[in-house]
What does this fold into?
Amino acid sequence: RFVQLNGTLDAHRPERSVAALSGAYQGYVEAMDTLIVSASTGQDAQAAAAMASTRLATLEAVLFDAQRAVADTLAAAQRRAQSRALGLVSAAALCSILLVVIIRRRSEHARSNEAARRATESSERRFRALTEQSSDIVFTTDPQGTISYASASAERTLGRPVGSLTGMTLATLVDADDVPATTAFLERLFRDRKST
It folds into this structure.
């Protein structure tokens, strides 16, 4: 029975090692019972002692193997725990680095957007200052000729409020004979603007 149990110790399956250790202990108890019975019945005490000594040596080997299996199991568990901990620390460090990079980029992006917004506002103020003081009519349109801005001089010259001009097309403001030339001019203007 000891020899059979000795082969069941496994560092990767501690439950088998515990079962083997329990079996070895049970075998030792049986061997001692046999020795006591043999000695009390007067059988050959020397043969019983030799058998008990053999079984005790086997039990010591099984116990040594069980101790080694438990130590191996603990060492393997410790290595797995260290590996997992190292993986978690590495993941946390990587997340921290990524978070810093994301925050830095967002901060730079926000500063860039703020600078662009200020530059746009400044440019719009200069544009309005120039066009509002000019006696020339100034419009801003999309490629289809829809007006998005009309200067104050447009109201003075055309006799319409500036607000009513926004959303209209230039074609509605020019003579019907001039619509093809106005449309061609806008197409050429926006085409040339895209190519430069």
The beta strands are 139-141, 147-150.
